[in-house]
Amino acid sequence: MEETMEREGKQVLDRLIRAGHEAYFVGGCVRDKLLGRPLKDIDIATAALPEQVMRLFAKTAPTGLQHGTVTVIMDTYTFEVTTFRKESEYEQYRKPKSVEFISDLNEDLRRRDFTINAMALAADGSTIDPFGGAEDLRSKLIRAVGDPHERFREDALRMLRGIRFACEYGFELEPATWDALIRHAPLLAHVAMERVSAELDKMIEGRAPDRAVDLLHRSGLPRHFKQPIDWPLSAREPLPAPIARGKLERVSGAELRWAALFAGLGMDADAAQTAMKRLKCSGKKTESVAKLLRVDAWMRGKVAAFGGGIGAPAETARPRPLPDETGYEWTALGCVQFGKAAVRDWLSFAAWRAEAMDERGWPPFVRRAADWLERVPVERVTDLNVSGGDVAAELNGKPGPWLGDLLRDLLVDVALGKVPNERTSLLERAKITAKRED
Ligand code: ATP
Ligand code: MG
After folding, report:
1. Which residues form the domain of 126?
2. 41 C-alpha vs ligand 2 centroid, how far in Å?
3. Which of 138, 139, 197, 302 is deepest in the core (most CB within 10 A)?
4. pLDDT band at 435, cuts 50/70/90?
5. How many helical (H) and strand (E) elements, i.e. helices and strands, does the chain have?
6. Residue 308: what pLDDT?
7. pLDDT tens digits for range 259-294
8. Are 2 and 132 part of one and the same domain?
9. Is residue 21 domain-shared with residue 101, that is, in the same domain?
Protein backbone atom coordinates (compact mmCIF):
# COMPACT_ATOMS: atom_id res chain seq x y z
CA MET A 1 0.00 0.00 0.00
CA GLU A 2 2.70 2.38 1.06
CA GLU A 3 4.77 1.24 -1.91
CA THR A 4 1.97 2.34 -4.19
CA MET A 5 1.94 5.73 -2.47
CA GLU A 6 5.67 6.15 -2.96
CA ARG A 7 5.50 4.94 -6.55
CA GLU A 8 2.74 7.38 -7.43
CA GLY A 9 4.55 10.15 -5.54
CA LYS A 10 7.66 9.47 -7.63
CA GLN A 11 5.55 9.68 -10.78
CA VAL A 12 4.48 13.16 -9.71
CA LEU A 13 8.12 14.15 -9.15
CA ASP A 14 9.18 12.71 -12.51
CA ARG A 15 6.50 14.55 -14.42
CA LEU A 16 7.47 17.86 -12.80
CA ILE A 17 11.17 17.27 -13.36
CA ARG A 18 10.69 16.28 -16.99
CA ALA A 19 8.81 19.53 -17.52
CA GLY A 20 11.89 21.34 -16.23
CA HIS A 21 10.85 22.06 -12.64
CA GLU A 22 12.72 21.07 -9.50
CA ALA A 23 10.59 18.88 -7.24
CA TYR A 24 11.10 16.97 -3.96
CA PHE A 25 9.34 15.06 -1.25
CA VAL A 26 9.40 17.33 1.82
CA GLY A 27 8.50 17.65 5.48
CA GLY A 28 6.90 14.91 7.57
CA CYS A 29 7.29 12.13 5.01
CA VAL A 30 11.07 12.60 4.78
CA ARG A 31 11.33 12.57 8.57
CA ASP A 32 9.19 9.46 8.89
CA LYS A 33 11.00 7.67 6.07
CA LEU A 34 14.39 8.28 7.70
CA LEU A 35 12.95 6.99 10.96
CA GLY A 36 11.56 3.92 9.23
CA ARG A 37 8.04 4.83 10.32
CA PRO A 38 4.99 4.36 8.11
CA LEU A 39 4.21 7.40 5.94
CA LYS A 40 0.85 9.06 6.47
CA ASP A 41 1.04 11.08 3.31
CA ILE A 42 3.59 12.55 0.95
CA ASP A 43 3.92 16.29 0.49
CA ILE A 44 5.76 17.59 -2.53
CA ALA A 45 7.53 20.92 -2.97
CA THR A 46 8.37 22.27 -6.38
CA ALA A 47 9.67 25.33 -8.18
CA ALA A 48 6.71 25.09 -10.57
CA LEU A 49 3.96 27.65 -10.07
CA PRO A 50 0.46 26.41 -9.20
CA GLU A 51 -0.86 27.04 -12.74
CA GLN A 52 2.02 25.07 -14.16
CA VAL A 53 1.32 22.18 -11.82
CA MET A 54 -2.34 22.20 -12.79
CA ARG A 55 -1.46 22.11 -16.47
CA LEU A 56 0.85 19.12 -16.06
CA PHE A 57 -1.62 16.73 -14.44
CA ALA A 58 -4.91 15.39 -15.66
CA LYS A 59 -6.65 15.58 -12.30
CA THR A 60 -5.97 18.32 -9.80
CA ALA A 61 -7.83 20.33 -7.19
CA PRO A 62 -7.00 23.94 -6.29
CA THR A 63 -6.61 23.26 -2.57
CA GLY A 64 -4.90 26.46 -1.47
CA LEU A 65 -3.83 28.41 -4.49
CA GLN A 66 -3.00 31.55 -2.57
CA HIS A 67 -0.50 29.50 -0.53
CA GLY A 68 0.72 27.74 -3.63
CA THR A 69 -0.89 24.37 -2.95
CA VAL A 70 -2.46 22.18 -5.62
CA THR A 71 -3.69 18.67 -4.91
CA VAL A 72 -2.65 16.24 -7.60
CA ILE A 73 -4.96 13.26 -7.86
CA MET A 74 -3.29 10.05 -9.00
CA ASP A 75 -4.86 6.59 -9.37
CA THR A 76 -4.85 5.63 -5.69
CA TYR A 77 -3.40 8.56 -3.77
CA THR A 78 -3.52 12.32 -3.78
CA PHE A 79 -0.52 14.57 -3.24
CA GLU A 80 -0.28 18.13 -2.05
CA VAL A 81 2.12 19.90 -4.36
CA THR A 82 3.24 23.27 -3.03
CA THR A 83 5.36 25.85 -4.79
CA PHE A 84 8.58 26.77 -2.97
CA ARG A 85 7.67 29.75 -0.90
CA LYS A 86 8.80 32.22 1.65
CA GLU A 87 6.44 33.49 4.29
CA SER A 88 7.29 37.13 4.31
CA GLU A 89 5.49 38.86 7.09
CA TYR A 90 3.71 37.15 9.89
CA GLU A 91 0.60 38.67 11.30
CA GLN A 92 0.29 38.75 15.07
CA TYR A 93 2.25 35.63 15.88
CA ARG A 94 0.08 33.30 13.90
CA LYS A 95 -0.09 33.17 10.17
CA PRO A 96 1.89 34.63 7.36
CA LYS A 97 0.27 37.74 5.92
CA SER A 98 1.51 36.94 2.48
CA VAL A 99 3.58 34.28 0.80
CA GLU A 100 6.08 34.81 -1.90
CA PHE A 101 6.84 32.11 -4.46
CA ILE A 102 10.54 31.47 -4.86
CA SER A 103 12.79 29.16 -6.85
CA ASP A 104 15.14 28.03 -4.11
CA LEU A 105 14.42 24.87 -2.14
CA ASN A 106 16.68 25.89 0.74
CA GLU A 107 14.70 29.05 1.32
CA ASP A 108 11.54 26.97 1.41
CA LEU A 109 13.04 24.63 4.00
CA ARG A 110 14.14 27.60 6.10
CA ARG A 111 10.56 28.69 6.81
CA ARG A 112 9.69 25.32 8.36
CA ASP A 113 9.43 24.79 12.09
CA PHE A 114 11.87 22.12 13.22
CA THR A 115 15.04 20.71 11.68
CA ILE A 116 13.54 17.23 11.48
CA ASN A 117 10.67 18.70 9.44
CA ALA A 118 12.93 20.74 7.19
CA MET A 119 14.45 18.07 4.97
CA ALA A 120 13.74 17.15 1.38
CA LEU A 121 14.17 13.92 -0.55
CA ALA A 122 15.14 14.09 -4.21
CA ALA A 123 13.97 11.69 -6.93
CA ASP A 124 17.42 10.04 -6.95
CA GLY A 125 17.06 9.19 -3.25
CA SER A 126 19.45 11.84 -1.90
CA THR A 127 18.48 13.93 1.10
CA ILE A 128 18.68 17.71 1.19
CA ASP A 129 19.22 18.64 4.80
CA PRO A 130 20.60 22.15 5.27
CA PHE A 131 19.78 22.39 9.00
CA GLY A 132 21.03 19.07 10.30
CA GLY A 133 17.65 17.35 10.61
CA ALA A 134 19.08 13.85 10.11
CA GLU A 135 21.62 14.45 12.86
CA ASP A 136 18.84 15.65 15.18
CA LEU A 137 16.82 12.55 14.35
CA ARG A 138 19.78 10.47 15.47
CA SER A 139 20.25 12.54 18.63
CA LYS A 140 16.48 12.52 19.21
CA LEU A 141 16.17 16.28 19.39
CA ILE A 142 13.45 18.73 18.50
CA ARG A 143 15.34 21.82 17.43
CA ALA A 144 13.90 24.91 15.79
CA VAL A 145 15.23 25.84 12.37
CA GLY A 146 17.56 28.80 12.91
CA ASP A 147 16.65 31.14 15.75
CA PRO A 148 13.96 29.55 17.93
CA HIS A 149 12.79 32.94 19.22
CA GLU A 150 12.09 34.10 15.71
CA ARG A 151 10.36 30.84 14.81
CA PHE A 152 8.00 31.05 17.79
CA ARG A 153 7.32 34.73 17.27
CA GLU A 154 6.35 34.03 13.67
CA ASP A 155 3.85 31.35 14.62
CA ALA A 156 3.22 30.60 18.28
CA LEU A 157 1.49 27.32 17.47
CA ARG A 158 4.93 25.89 16.77
CA MET A 159 5.51 25.69 20.53
CA LEU A 160 2.71 23.17 20.87
CA ARG A 161 3.85 21.34 17.76
CA GLY A 162 7.31 21.05 19.31
CA ILE A 163 5.92 19.38 22.42
CA ARG A 164 3.75 17.14 20.28
CA PHE A 165 6.67 15.94 18.15
CA ALA A 166 8.79 15.39 21.27
CA CYS A 167 6.05 13.17 22.69
CA GLU A 168 5.24 11.36 19.48
CA TYR A 169 8.86 10.46 18.76
CA GLY A 170 10.18 10.20 22.30
CA PHE A 171 12.61 13.09 21.67
CA GLU A 172 13.91 15.86 23.92
CA LEU A 173 13.46 19.52 23.19
CA GLU A 174 16.89 20.97 22.48
CA PRO A 175 17.72 23.41 25.35
CA ALA A 176 17.68 26.66 23.36
CA THR A 177 14.38 25.65 21.75
CA TRP A 178 12.89 24.81 25.15
CA ASP A 179 14.11 28.11 26.65
CA ALA A 180 12.58 30.06 23.78
CA LEU A 181 9.36 28.14 24.26
CA ILE A 182 9.16 29.04 27.95
CA ARG A 183 9.90 32.65 27.15
CA HIS A 184 7.35 33.01 24.38
CA ALA A 185 4.56 30.99 25.98
CA PRO A 186 2.37 34.13 26.32
CA LEU A 187 2.27 34.47 22.53
CA LEU A 188 -0.03 31.46 22.40
CA ALA A 189 -2.82 33.87 23.32
CA HIS A 190 -2.86 34.92 19.63
CA VAL A 191 -3.54 31.45 18.30
CA ALA A 192 -7.05 30.24 17.46
CA MET A 193 -8.39 27.64 19.88
CA GLU A 194 -9.16 25.28 17.00
CA ARG A 195 -5.49 25.02 16.14
CA VAL A 196 -4.59 24.60 19.80
CA SER A 197 -7.07 21.83 20.36
CA ALA A 198 -6.06 19.99 17.20
CA GLU A 199 -2.58 19.76 18.72
CA LEU A 200 -3.89 18.73 22.13
CA ASP A 201 -6.00 16.01 20.53
CA LYS A 202 -2.96 14.59 18.85
CA MET A 203 -0.99 14.71 22.10
CA ILE A 204 -3.66 13.19 24.32
CA GLU A 205 -4.59 10.57 21.76
CA GLY A 206 -0.99 9.93 20.71
CA ARG A 207 1.85 7.74 21.88
CA ALA A 208 2.90 9.48 25.07
CA PRO A 209 -0.05 11.32 26.64
CA ASP A 210 1.49 11.28 30.11
CA ARG A 211 4.61 13.00 28.95
CA ALA A 212 2.48 15.47 27.00
CA VAL A 213 0.61 16.35 30.19
CA ASP A 214 3.88 16.83 32.04
CA LEU A 215 5.48 18.96 29.31
CA LEU A 216 2.37 21.05 28.85
CA HIS A 217 2.24 21.72 32.56
CA ARG A 218 5.94 22.49 32.84
CA SER A 219 6.00 24.71 29.77
CA GLY A 220 3.23 26.93 31.10
CA LEU A 221 1.63 26.99 27.64
CA PRO A 222 -1.87 26.18 28.94
CA ARG A 223 -1.81 29.36 31.03
CA HIS A 224 -1.79 31.34 27.81
CA PHE A 225 -4.56 29.84 25.74
CA LYS A 226 -6.69 32.44 24.02
CA GLN A 227 -9.66 31.06 25.95
CA PRO A 228 -8.36 30.45 29.46
CA ILE A 229 -9.26 27.13 31.03
CA ASP A 230 -9.46 26.69 34.74
CA TRP A 231 -7.69 23.38 35.27
CA PRO A 232 -4.60 22.13 37.06
CA LEU A 233 -2.69 22.12 33.74
CA SER A 234 -2.59 25.89 33.87
CA ALA A 235 -1.67 26.10 37.54
CA ARG A 236 1.81 26.57 38.90
CA GLU A 237 1.24 24.00 41.62
CA PRO A 238 2.29 20.40 41.07
CA LEU A 239 -0.24 18.30 39.17
CA PRO A 240 -2.72 16.23 41.21
CA ALA A 241 -1.24 12.85 42.13
CA PRO A 242 -3.44 10.63 39.95
CA ILE A 243 -2.48 12.40 36.75
CA ALA A 244 1.12 12.98 37.84
CA ARG A 245 1.51 9.22 38.29
CA GLY A 246 0.84 9.01 34.59
CA LYS A 247 -1.17 6.10 33.35
CA LEU A 248 -3.10 7.70 30.55
CA GLU A 249 -1.28 5.67 27.97
CA ARG A 250 -2.96 2.55 29.28
CA VAL A 251 -6.38 3.76 28.17
CA SER A 252 -7.16 3.36 24.53
CA GLY A 253 -9.70 5.39 22.62
CA ALA A 254 -9.82 9.14 22.21
CA GLU A 255 -12.86 9.77 24.35
CA LEU A 256 -11.75 7.47 27.14
CA ARG A 257 -8.37 9.19 27.18
CA TRP A 258 -9.92 12.60 27.52
CA ALA A 259 -12.28 11.39 30.23
CA ALA A 260 -9.34 9.81 32.03
CA LEU A 261 -7.40 13.06 31.74
CA PHE A 262 -10.19 15.06 33.33
CA ALA A 263 -10.78 12.48 36.04
CA GLY A 264 -7.07 12.42 36.80
CA LEU A 265 -7.06 16.20 37.01
CA GLY A 266 -9.92 15.98 39.50
CA MET A 267 -12.52 17.55 37.18
CA ASP A 268 -16.15 16.49 37.04
CA ALA A 269 -18.43 16.25 34.00
CA ASP A 270 -19.45 19.90 34.11
CA ALA A 271 -15.90 21.15 34.42
CA ALA A 272 -14.82 18.86 31.60
CA GLN A 273 -17.64 20.09 29.41
CA THR A 274 -16.72 23.72 30.01
CA ALA A 275 -13.09 22.99 29.20
CA MET A 276 -13.94 21.13 26.02
CA LYS A 277 -16.25 23.90 24.86
CA ARG A 278 -13.46 26.39 25.33
CA LEU A 279 -11.15 24.11 23.44
CA LYS A 280 -13.75 24.04 20.66
CA CYS A 281 -13.79 20.26 20.66
CA SER A 282 -16.54 18.74 18.55
CA GLY A 283 -19.96 18.59 20.17
CA LYS A 284 -20.02 14.84 19.77
CA LYS A 285 -16.75 14.29 21.55
CA THR A 286 -17.64 16.74 24.30
CA GLU A 287 -20.93 14.93 24.87
CA SER A 288 -19.35 11.47 25.01
CA VAL A 289 -16.62 12.55 27.40
CA ALA A 290 -19.07 14.35 29.68
CA LYS A 291 -21.39 11.35 29.57
CA LEU A 292 -18.63 8.97 30.64
CA LEU A 293 -17.88 11.21 33.58
CA ARG A 294 -21.58 11.41 34.42
CA VAL A 295 -21.97 7.63 34.40
CA ASP A 296 -18.88 7.47 36.57
CA ALA A 297 -20.20 9.97 39.11
CA TRP A 298 -23.57 8.22 39.15
CA MET A 299 -22.09 4.76 39.72
CA ARG A 300 -19.74 6.10 42.36
CA GLY A 301 -22.70 7.69 44.07
CA LYS A 302 -24.48 4.34 44.21
CA VAL A 303 -21.40 2.60 45.49
CA ALA A 304 -20.74 5.24 48.12
CA ALA A 305 -24.34 5.14 49.35
CA PHE A 306 -24.15 1.38 49.67
CA GLY A 307 -21.04 1.78 51.78
CA GLY A 308 -19.55 -1.57 50.93
CA GLY A 309 -16.07 -0.14 50.66
CA ILE A 310 -15.75 -0.62 46.89
CA GLY A 311 -14.94 2.99 46.25
CA ALA A 312 -12.65 3.44 49.21
CA PRO A 313 -8.93 3.18 48.47
CA ALA A 314 -8.09 1.99 51.95
CA GLU A 315 -10.95 0.18 53.58
CA THR A 316 -11.22 0.64 57.30
CA ALA A 317 -14.81 -0.37 57.91
CA ARG A 318 -15.80 -3.97 57.51
CA PRO A 319 -16.52 -4.56 53.81
CA ARG A 320 -20.08 -5.49 53.01
CA PRO A 321 -20.41 -7.94 50.15
CA LEU A 322 -22.42 -6.55 47.27
CA PRO A 323 -25.40 -8.78 46.46
CA ASP A 324 -25.79 -9.71 42.84
CA GLU A 325 -29.30 -8.17 42.66
CA THR A 326 -28.04 -4.81 43.88
CA GLY A 327 -25.23 -4.69 41.36
CA TYR A 328 -27.57 -5.76 38.59
CA GLU A 329 -30.07 -3.11 39.60
CA TRP A 330 -27.51 -0.30 39.38
CA THR A 331 -26.32 -1.56 36.01
CA ALA A 332 -29.85 -1.83 34.64
CA LEU A 333 -30.81 1.63 35.89
CA GLY A 334 -27.58 2.98 34.45
CA CYS A 335 -28.39 1.46 31.05
CA VAL A 336 -31.87 2.99 31.04
CA GLN A 337 -30.53 6.38 32.02
CA PHE A 338 -27.36 6.60 29.95
CA GLY A 339 -27.64 3.84 27.34
CA LYS A 340 -25.86 0.51 27.26
CA ALA A 341 -23.00 1.76 25.11
CA ALA A 342 -22.15 4.46 27.64
CA VAL A 343 -22.19 1.97 30.51
CA ARG A 344 -20.02 -0.39 28.50
CA ASP A 345 -17.51 2.42 27.81
CA TRP A 346 -17.64 3.32 31.46
CA LEU A 347 -16.55 -0.22 32.38
CA SER A 348 -13.28 0.28 30.48
CA PHE A 349 -12.92 3.67 32.09
CA ALA A 350 -13.61 2.28 35.58
CA ALA A 351 -11.09 -0.51 35.09
CA TRP A 352 -8.48 2.08 34.12
CA ARG A 353 -9.40 4.34 36.97
CA ALA A 354 -9.23 1.55 39.53
CA GLU A 355 -5.69 0.82 38.44
CA ALA A 356 -4.51 4.38 37.94
CA MET A 357 -5.88 5.54 41.25
CA ASP A 358 -5.19 2.35 43.08
CA GLU A 359 -8.78 1.78 44.08
CA ARG A 360 -8.60 -1.86 44.91
CA GLY A 361 -12.26 -2.47 45.51
CA TRP A 362 -13.26 -1.69 41.93
CA PRO A 363 -11.80 -4.43 39.72
CA PRO A 364 -14.03 -7.22 41.09
CA PHE A 365 -17.04 -4.92 40.74
CA VAL A 366 -16.14 -4.10 37.14
CA ARG A 367 -15.74 -7.76 36.29
CA ARG A 368 -19.14 -8.60 37.70
CA ALA A 369 -20.70 -5.55 36.04
CA ALA A 370 -19.67 -6.78 32.58
CA ASP A 371 -21.87 -9.77 33.18
CA TRP A 372 -24.76 -7.73 34.59
CA LEU A 373 -24.60 -5.47 31.57
CA GLU A 374 -25.09 -8.36 29.15
CA ARG A 375 -28.21 -9.41 31.04
CA VAL A 376 -29.99 -6.06 30.78
CA PRO A 377 -32.74 -6.69 28.18
CA VAL A 378 -33.71 -3.14 27.20
CA GLU A 379 -32.28 0.37 27.18
CA ARG A 380 -34.79 2.53 25.32
CA VAL A 381 -38.53 2.90 25.19
CA THR A 382 -38.41 1.72 21.57
CA ASP A 383 -37.05 -1.62 22.81
CA LEU A 384 -40.38 -2.32 24.53
CA ASN A 385 -42.64 -4.77 22.74
CA VAL A 386 -45.52 -2.37 22.98
CA SER A 387 -45.99 1.06 21.44
CA GLY A 388 -47.17 4.30 22.99
CA GLY A 389 -50.29 4.05 20.81
CA ASP A 390 -51.09 0.57 22.15
CA VAL A 391 -50.76 1.76 25.72
CA ALA A 392 -52.88 4.87 25.13
CA ALA A 393 -55.60 2.80 23.44
CA GLU A 394 -55.60 0.22 26.24
CA LEU A 395 -56.08 2.97 28.81
CA ASN A 396 -58.50 4.94 26.66
CA GLY A 397 -56.31 7.98 27.04
CA LYS A 398 -55.11 10.68 24.70
CA PRO A 399 -51.35 10.65 24.11
CA GLY A 400 -49.61 13.28 26.21
CA PRO A 401 -46.67 13.73 28.56
CA TRP A 402 -48.21 11.16 30.92
CA LEU A 403 -47.66 8.52 28.26
CA GLY A 404 -43.94 9.16 28.04
CA ASP A 405 -43.64 8.88 31.82
CA LEU A 406 -45.60 5.66 31.82
CA LEU A 407 -43.47 4.11 29.08
CA ARG A 408 -40.35 5.06 31.03
CA ASP A 409 -41.75 3.32 34.10
CA LEU A 410 -42.43 0.23 32.01
CA LEU A 411 -38.92 0.38 30.64
CA VAL A 412 -37.44 0.45 34.13
CA ASP A 413 -39.68 -2.45 35.15
CA VAL A 414 -38.53 -4.54 32.21
CA ALA A 415 -34.89 -3.60 32.76
CA LEU A 416 -35.17 -4.65 36.40
CA GLY A 417 -36.86 -7.90 35.42
CA LYS A 418 -40.13 -7.07 37.17
CA VAL A 419 -42.15 -7.70 34.05
CA PRO A 420 -41.35 -9.62 30.86
CA ASN A 421 -40.92 -7.63 27.67
CA GLU A 422 -44.06 -9.03 26.19
CA ARG A 423 -47.15 -7.20 24.95
CA THR A 424 -49.92 -8.58 27.17
CA SER A 425 -47.85 -8.36 30.34
CA LEU A 426 -46.77 -4.84 29.48
CA LEU A 427 -50.35 -3.66 28.90
CA GLU A 428 -51.43 -5.26 32.19
CA ARG A 429 -48.58 -3.57 33.98
CA ALA A 430 -49.43 -0.25 32.30
CA LYS A 431 -52.96 -0.40 33.73
CA ILE A 432 -51.71 -1.07 37.23
CA THR A 433 -49.06 1.63 37.02
CA ALA A 434 -51.50 4.19 35.60
CA LYS A 435 -53.98 3.51 38.38
CA ARG A 436 -51.28 3.84 40.99
CA GLU A 437 -50.23 7.17 39.56
CA ASP A 438 -53.74 8.60 39.40
P1 ATP B 1 2.22 15.12 10.99
O2 ATP B 1 1.38 15.19 9.73
O3 ATP B 1 2.78 13.81 11.33
O4 ATP B 1 1.60 15.81 12.13
P5 ATP B 1 3.96 16.81 9.53
O6 ATP B 1 5.38 17.16 9.74
O7 ATP B 1 3.59 16.17 8.24
O8 ATP B 1 3.54 15.95 10.76
P9 ATP B 1 2.08 18.85 8.88
O10 ATP B 1 1.32 19.72 9.79
O11 ATP B 1 1.38 17.86 8.03
O12 ATP B 1 3.16 18.13 9.77
O13 ATP B 1 2.97 19.82 7.97
C14 ATP B 1 3.80 19.39 6.93
C15 ATP B 1 5.12 20.17 6.95
O16 ATP B 1 4.85 21.58 6.85
C17 ATP B 1 5.89 20.02 8.25
O18 ATP B 1 6.74 18.89 8.23
C19 ATP B 1 6.67 21.31 8.30
O20 ATP B 1 7.80 21.26 7.47
C21 ATP B 1 5.71 22.31 7.71
N22 ATP B 1 4.87 22.98 8.71
C23 ATP B 1 3.62 22.66 9.10
N24 ATP B 1 3.13 23.49 10.01
C25 ATP B 1 4.09 24.41 10.21
C26 ATP B 1 4.19 25.57 11.04
N27 ATP B 1 3.20 25.95 11.85
N28 ATP B 1 5.32 26.28 10.96
C29 ATP B 1 6.33 25.92 10.14
N30 ATP B 1 6.31 24.85 9.35
C31 ATP B 1 5.20 24.09 9.38
MG1 MG C 1 1.55 15.72 7.56
Report:
1. 1-136
2. 6
3. 197
4. confident
5. 20, 13
6. 65
7. 999 999 999 999 999 999 999 999 999 999 999 999
8. yes
9. yes
